[in-house]
Design goal:
Subcellular location: Cytoplasm
CATH class of the largest domain: Alpha Beta
Number of domains: 2
Oligomer: single chain
GO biological process, one term: proteolysis
Strand order of the largest sheet: 8-9-11-10-14-18-15-16
Bound molecules: ligand BES, manganese (II) ion, zinc ion
Helix content: 25-40%
CATH architecture of the largest domain: 3-Layer(aba) Sandwich
Structural class: alpha/beta
Number of helices: 14
CATH topology of the largest domain: Aminopeptidase
CATH superfamily of the largest domain: Zn peptidases
Shape: elongated
Radius of gyration: 24 Å
GO molecular function, one term: manganese ion binding
Strand content: 15-25%
Number of strands: 20
EC number: 3.4.11.1, 3.4.11.10
Distance between the termini: 34 Å
Protein name: Probable cytosol aminopeptidase
Amino acid sequence: MTDVTLSSKNPTAVKAEALVVATAQTSDGVAVVSDQLPTDLLTQLESLAPQLGVTGARDEVRKIPAGAKLAADVLVLTGLGERAEDGTFATETLRRAAGAATRELAGLKSAAIALPASDDDEITAVTEGALLGAYAFNRYRSAGNGSGKDAAKDAKNGKDPVAAIEILTPLHKNQKAKVAAERAAIVAAAVHAARDLVNTAPNELYPATFADAAKAAAKDVKHVRVTVLDDKQLASGGYGGLTAVGQGSSRGPRLVKVAYTPAKPSAKVALVGKGITFDSGGISIKPAAGMEAMKSDMAGAAAVLSTVVAAAKLNLPVAVTGYLCLAENMPGGNAQRPADVITIYGGKTVEVLNTDAEGRIVMADGLVSAVEDGHDVVLDIATLTGAQMVALGNRTSAVMGTDEVRDEVKAAADATGELFWPMPLPEELKSNIKSKVADVANSGPRWGGMLNAGLFLKTFVGDHPWAHLDIAGPAFNDGGAHGYTPGGGTGVGVRTLLAFVEGRASAK
Ligand code: BES
Ligand code: MN
Ligand code: ZN
């Protein structure tokens, strides 16, 4: 990952390939947001803004030669949009502008970032945004992977992220600022790891190799233990959900527990993640168009794994246990059928009406297991329903559950800049998932599809404090990159889950 340091160098004097400075929209044009660049340079930039195509708008990044007045080679102008009423910029605005800039720095060795960074929150936002934007997934390119072996293909296919960045801040020696920057680096590494798992091709990433990836991620991390139940253990242990969904694939399911247990935990949090390494729909098979995006159907489990590892690296005083519900949903000869009745861990029965509603089935096993283990609170995260995207689009995730926990998740999300919105779980809709033969059916009418799925999950947590995060749309970006978000896996959820755990740490 990109190396990051804090420094108090003057932006004029800093020797780097690129110097990143912010622009803003004002009532009479464009302002360059810097009190350290020479005034004549600022005036020149601001007056030439129209010719340069610089408006100061958000997500606008322009690169120009730095000129003789600056020690850097290239000047990168990144837009912040309009100032808030109080004259500042929201931290999420800084985070996105930093990330939009570093996305344009791929292939470079060094850059200095001179965005507003005069308190811990701003330093966190700028550092996180810069590192989150400095991401590339070039693993599968035989040339043009930034190796430098073929410059033309590198230019076309993708380069490695900028190697090192300096964040310019007057607080470079301040202890809290340093801690903020170190935390940002751990958070960004966690988000990158989740993106990497999502982007990994499903012929390589299947339940057994995901379990291996969990062991690898936890290796050498203090107080983290990984235990794996394989397909045979799941079947004999009564995990009927994972078993049923996994049986259509030649590559059997796994339930992976990733437990971080600090010495004297002040709270115990469980995180349950949907890890369908590929969702073909099973016998209720999906249409061909767009099916490739279903390699991302394990994004919840990836976020959980990354969060547990990050909590450990941050030495949080909270016990966090991840439950990765891993299966491949395939229509093999032994696949489950619509009309099958299965028994979830703990004894409740489910009539499988649609094998494409597989996520809730594997999550049921994980949720019952988590509740049984006795945590203070259970969160689950899943690319659960297409209906989530119908309701909220592909940038805003949904959260539902017991009122307090749901609101706590929403507040945690707001603090990180991740977009979440609360959704209800209306009792009246429970009739939607009534089964004629079993305790509950795994699918219902199209209307309220996201809530039907949430209500299904609720059946397995009872009254336990709980929230369900549906990240179906935001987990995978099949459009263009924006802000600090690349195309492909986004790593959404990691920052919210981690903020939630941090909140529980300071609450006690
Ligand atoms: N993995 C999908 C949900 C999904 C859809 C995630 C699009 C990301 C993008 C899930 O397993 C699924 O297929 N859900 C069905 C449920 C239905 C059959 C009740 C859906 O939403 O259509
Ligand atoms: Mn499905
Ligand atoms: Zn699915």
